[in-house]
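re: ur question from the group chat, yeah i did fold both. here u go
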Amino acid sequence: MPTFLAYRLLKGAFISTEAASSLLLYVSKVLTFGEFGALPPSVLIKGLLVGSSLMGGTFLGKVVMLRLSDPAFQRLLDALLLVSGISVLLAAMRA
């Protein structure tokens, strides 16, 4: 995500680039784990269910994103990255 932000991608360009890279990453993971027999059908089905629900959230989020100005979108991403970083640090301190 920070790499895409470094290229100053905003809104639709950012979201679509992130989605495309995630899709390629997860397809390669499924193919790799499937090839080595480490992906049972039950896990694949659960993954498809979770993925389809995430897609629904993405479509709803698009409505909100299109209403944001570019600076507001940038501030929202900065806030989400900050919260994510703090969450990781807190989880590491508990371990």
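okk and heres the other one u asked abt
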Amino acid sequence: MTDPPMKIQDHIHKLLDNTLCMTALIKEGAWLLVYLQDPSDAYDALIRAQKTAVVIFLLGGACIVLMACYLPTRLLLGTAENGDKT
């Protein structure tokens, strides 16, 4: 007999405040495993990865904008200088 899937629920309770509650039946349903965890602890790695991704995207976008402004200006100045020499 296979165990039913684990259930993850976000409970807001007066005593538990804001707690992530995970339950799973084990030993063919004879036991109920209950695990309580603070959401900030549970999602800490996810939030850190999201912040890192945002910083990388912002830096990449800034580099793209700077290069889009710098390279055409440099090419136009080089063309203008070469045109003056002939």
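fwiw on the second one: Helices lie at 39-42, 44-85. The first strand starts at residue 7 and ends at 13. idk if thats what u expected
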